[in-house]
Design brief:
Elements: E1 4-9, E2 15-21, H1 23-26, H2 32-45, H3 105-121, E3 125-128, H4 138-147, E4 154-157, H5 163-169, E5 175-178, H6 185-190, E6 193-197, H7 198-205
Parallel strand pairs: 1-3, 3-6, 4-5, 4-6
Antiparallel strand pairs: 1-2
Helix pairs in contact: 2-3, 4-5
Length: about 230
Amino acid sequence: MAEVKAPLYALDGSPKGEVVLDPEVFGIEPNLAVLHQVITAQLAAARSGTASTKTRGEVRGGGRKPWRQKGLGRARHGSIRAPQWVGGGVAHGPKPRDYSQRTPKKMKRLALRSALSARASEQAVKVVENLAWERPKTKQAVALLEAMGLGGKVLVVLGRGDVAAELSFRNLPQVRITEPGHLTAYDVLWSDDVVFTTETLGVAAGSGTYEVSEEDFVKEEGGEAG
Protein backbone atom coordinates (compact mmCIF):
# COMPACT_ATOMS: atom_id res chain seq x y z
CA MET A 1 0.00 0.00 0.00
CA ALA A 2 1.51 3.33 -1.09
CA GLU A 3 2.43 5.96 1.46
CA VAL A 4 -0.12 8.76 1.69
CA LYS A 5 0.90 12.22 2.90
CA ALA A 6 -0.88 15.46 3.71
CA PRO A 7 0.56 18.97 4.11
CA LEU A 8 1.05 20.24 7.66
CA TYR A 9 0.43 23.88 8.57
CA ALA A 10 1.16 26.03 11.60
CA LEU A 11 -1.51 27.99 13.46
CA ASP A 12 -0.93 31.02 11.20
CA GLY A 13 -1.25 28.93 8.03
CA SER A 14 2.46 28.74 7.17
CA PRO A 15 3.68 25.37 5.78
CA LYS A 16 5.54 23.12 8.21
CA GLY A 17 6.14 20.02 6.17
CA GLU A 18 4.07 16.86 5.72
CA VAL A 19 2.46 14.18 7.83
CA VAL A 20 2.03 10.53 6.90
CA LEU A 21 -1.59 9.40 6.85
CA ASP A 22 -2.84 5.99 7.90
CA PRO A 23 -3.13 3.98 4.66
CA GLU A 24 -5.99 1.90 6.09
CA VAL A 25 -8.10 5.07 6.41
CA PHE A 26 -6.71 7.41 3.74
CA GLY A 27 -5.15 5.02 1.22
CA ILE A 28 -7.72 2.43 0.20
CA GLU A 29 -9.41 2.02 -3.17
CA PRO A 30 -12.76 3.90 -2.87
CA ASN A 31 -15.79 1.63 -3.05
CA LEU A 32 -18.22 3.72 -5.12
CA ALA A 33 -21.16 1.34 -4.72
CA VAL A 34 -20.96 1.43 -0.93
CA LEU A 35 -20.43 5.20 -0.98
CA HIS A 36 -23.62 5.66 -3.00
CA GLN A 37 -25.70 3.40 -0.78
CA VAL A 38 -24.50 4.94 2.49
CA ILE A 39 -24.93 8.55 1.35
CA THR A 40 -28.39 7.76 -0.02
CA ALA A 41 -29.31 6.28 3.35
CA GLN A 42 -28.02 9.33 5.21
CA LEU A 43 -29.96 11.77 3.02
CA ALA A 44 -33.08 9.61 3.33
CA ALA A 45 -32.77 9.58 7.13
CA ALA A 46 -32.64 13.39 7.11
CA ARG A 47 -36.13 13.60 5.57
CA SER A 48 -38.77 14.61 8.09
CA GLY A 49 -41.50 12.45 6.54
CA THR A 50 -44.25 14.62 8.03
CA ALA A 51 -46.15 15.46 4.82
CA SER A 52 -49.79 14.44 5.15
CA THR A 53 -52.97 14.63 3.09
CA LYS A 54 -56.56 13.68 3.82
CA THR A 55 -58.38 10.88 2.08
CA ARG A 56 -62.05 11.06 1.08
CA GLY A 57 -62.91 9.48 4.43
CA GLU A 58 -61.14 12.24 6.38
CA VAL A 59 -62.34 15.45 4.69
CA ARG A 60 -65.41 17.21 5.97
CA GLY A 61 -68.78 16.77 4.26
CA GLY A 62 -69.97 14.43 1.54
CA GLY A 63 -72.28 12.43 3.77
CA ARG A 64 -75.15 12.14 1.34
CA LYS A 65 -75.43 11.31 -2.33
CA PRO A 66 -75.42 14.60 -4.32
CA TRP A 67 -78.23 13.46 -6.68
CA ARG A 68 -80.10 10.33 -7.53
CA GLN A 69 -78.42 7.57 -9.46
CA LYS A 70 -80.54 7.68 -12.64
CA GLY A 71 -82.78 9.93 -14.64
CA LEU A 72 -80.90 13.27 -14.63
CA GLY A 73 -78.41 12.65 -17.44
CA ARG A 74 -75.52 13.34 -15.12
CA ALA A 75 -72.60 11.16 -14.19
CA ARG A 76 -73.11 8.90 -11.19
CA HIS A 77 -71.65 10.19 -7.93
CA GLY A 78 -71.90 8.97 -4.38
CA SER A 79 -70.14 11.81 -2.56
CA ILE A 80 -68.97 15.34 -3.25
CA ARG A 81 -65.76 14.54 -1.39
CA ALA A 82 -64.47 11.98 -3.88
CA PRO A 83 -60.97 12.82 -5.28
CA GLN A 84 -62.31 14.20 -8.59
CA TRP A 85 -64.34 16.88 -6.76
CA VAL A 86 -62.95 20.26 -5.72
CA GLY A 87 -62.48 20.05 -1.98
CA GLY A 88 -62.46 16.27 -2.10
CA GLY A 89 -59.95 13.90 -0.60
CA VAL A 90 -56.58 13.11 -2.13
CA ALA A 91 -56.05 9.75 -3.81
CA HIS A 92 -52.77 8.04 -2.88
CA GLY A 93 -51.43 11.18 -1.19
CA PRO A 94 -48.47 11.26 1.22
CA LYS A 95 -48.86 10.16 4.81
CA PRO A 96 -46.36 10.48 7.68
CA ARG A 97 -43.67 7.83 7.28
CA ASP A 98 -40.13 6.95 8.25
CA TYR A 99 -37.66 7.16 5.35
CA SER A 100 -34.64 5.86 7.26
CA GLN A 101 -32.81 2.80 5.94
CA ARG A 102 -30.87 0.20 7.85
CA THR A 103 -27.16 0.56 7.13
CA PRO A 104 -24.62 -1.84 8.68
CA LYS A 105 -21.75 -0.26 10.61
CA LYS A 106 -19.18 -1.96 8.39
CA MET A 107 -20.67 -0.24 5.35
CA LYS A 108 -20.58 3.15 7.07
CA ARG A 109 -16.95 2.69 8.02
CA LEU A 110 -16.02 1.56 4.53
CA ALA A 111 -17.87 4.51 2.98
CA LEU A 112 -16.11 6.97 5.28
CA ARG A 113 -12.69 5.48 4.57
CA SER A 114 -13.49 5.52 0.84
CA ALA A 115 -14.43 9.20 0.97
CA LEU A 116 -11.33 10.14 2.99
CA SER A 117 -9.12 8.14 0.62
CA ALA A 118 -10.65 9.89 -2.38
CA ARG A 119 -9.97 13.31 -0.87
CA ALA A 120 -6.44 12.30 0.17
CA SER A 121 -5.65 11.15 -3.38
CA GLU A 122 -6.72 14.61 -4.59
CA GLN A 123 -4.39 16.32 -2.06
CA ALA A 124 -7.52 17.78 -0.43
CA VAL A 125 -6.71 16.65 3.13
CA LYS A 126 -4.91 19.31 5.20
CA VAL A 127 -3.56 19.16 8.75
CA VAL A 128 -3.09 22.08 11.17
CA GLU A 129 -0.78 21.65 14.16
CA ASN A 130 -3.40 22.87 16.59
CA LEU A 131 -6.13 25.48 16.81
CA ALA A 132 -5.51 26.64 20.36
CA TRP A 133 -6.76 30.18 19.88
CA GLU A 134 -7.25 32.17 23.06
CA ARG A 135 -10.32 34.03 21.84
CA PRO A 136 -12.89 33.27 19.15
CA LYS A 137 -12.54 35.61 16.19
CA THR A 138 -13.85 35.03 12.68
CA LYS A 139 -11.06 37.14 11.13
CA GLN A 140 -8.40 34.74 12.30
CA ALA A 141 -10.34 31.79 10.85
CA VAL A 142 -10.59 33.57 7.49
CA ALA A 143 -6.88 34.45 7.62
CA LEU A 144 -5.95 30.83 8.30
CA LEU A 145 -7.99 29.51 5.37
CA GLU A 146 -6.56 32.16 3.04
CA ALA A 147 -3.00 31.37 4.13
CA MET A 148 -3.65 27.69 3.43
CA GLY A 149 -5.06 28.55 -0.02
CA LEU A 150 -8.55 27.22 0.72
CA GLY A 151 -11.34 29.11 -1.00
CA GLY A 152 -14.14 26.61 -1.59
CA LYS A 153 -16.24 24.48 0.72
CA VAL A 154 -14.19 23.39 3.71
CA LEU A 155 -14.90 20.71 6.31
CA VAL A 156 -13.09 21.42 9.58
CA VAL A 157 -12.76 18.48 11.98
CA LEU A 158 -12.32 19.79 15.53
CA GLY A 159 -11.92 18.20 18.93
CA ARG A 160 -14.21 18.90 21.86
CA GLY A 161 -11.65 21.24 23.40
CA ASP A 162 -11.41 23.50 20.33
CA VAL A 163 -14.20 25.79 21.52
CA ALA A 164 -12.61 29.06 20.37
CA ALA A 165 -11.92 27.59 16.93
CA GLU A 166 -15.49 26.34 16.59
CA LEU A 167 -16.86 29.79 17.43
CA SER A 168 -14.44 31.33 14.94
CA PHE A 169 -15.38 29.09 12.01
CA ARG A 170 -19.12 28.73 12.53
CA ASN A 171 -20.06 32.10 10.97
CA LEU A 172 -18.40 31.26 7.64
CA PRO A 173 -21.05 30.08 5.13
CA GLN A 174 -18.68 27.81 3.19
CA VAL A 175 -17.34 26.03 6.29
CA ARG A 176 -18.89 23.01 7.96
CA ILE A 177 -17.68 21.94 11.41
CA THR A 178 -17.80 18.45 12.83
CA GLU A 179 -16.18 16.25 15.46
CA PRO A 180 -14.25 13.06 14.64
CA GLY A 181 -17.03 10.85 15.98
CA HIS A 182 -19.62 12.57 13.79
CA LEU A 183 -17.64 12.59 10.57
CA THR A 184 -19.58 11.00 7.70
CA ALA A 185 -18.90 10.21 4.06
CA TYR A 186 -21.45 12.81 2.98
CA ASP A 187 -19.61 15.55 4.91
CA VAL A 188 -16.31 14.58 3.30
CA LEU A 189 -17.70 14.49 -0.25
CA TRP A 190 -19.63 17.73 0.30
CA SER A 191 -16.40 19.61 0.93
CA ASP A 192 -13.63 20.59 -1.47
CA ASP A 193 -11.04 20.30 1.30
CA VAL A 194 -10.95 18.57 4.68
CA VAL A 195 -8.95 20.18 7.49
CA PHE A 196 -7.88 18.09 10.49
CA THR A 197 -5.95 19.12 13.55
CA THR A 198 -3.13 16.86 14.68
CA GLU A 199 -5.42 15.73 17.51
CA THR A 200 -8.43 14.85 15.36
CA LEU A 201 -6.23 13.27 12.71
CA GLY A 202 -4.87 11.01 15.41
CA VAL A 203 -8.38 9.77 16.15
CA ALA A 204 -8.83 8.74 12.52
CA ALA A 205 -5.29 7.44 12.06
CA GLY A 206 -5.27 5.45 15.28
CA SER A 207 -7.60 2.75 14.00
CA GLY A 208 -8.50 1.28 10.63
CA THR A 209 -12.01 0.64 12.00
CA TYR A 210 -12.73 4.33 12.48
CA GLU A 211 -16.16 4.58 14.11
CA VAL A 212 -19.10 6.49 12.68
CA SER A 213 -21.67 7.96 15.02
CA GLU A 214 -25.19 6.53 14.77
CA GLU A 215 -26.57 10.00 15.51
CA ASP A 216 -25.72 11.12 11.98
CA PHE A 217 -28.09 8.53 10.49
CA VAL A 218 -31.27 9.46 12.36
CA LYS A 219 -33.78 12.18 11.59
CA GLU A 220 -33.12 15.58 13.07
CA GLU A 221 -36.08 17.90 13.32
CA GLY A 222 -35.75 20.98 11.14
CA GLY A 223 -32.45 20.18 9.44
CA GLU A 224 -30.19 17.84 7.61
CA ALA A 225 -28.39 15.01 9.16
CA GLY A 226 -24.72 15.27 9.58
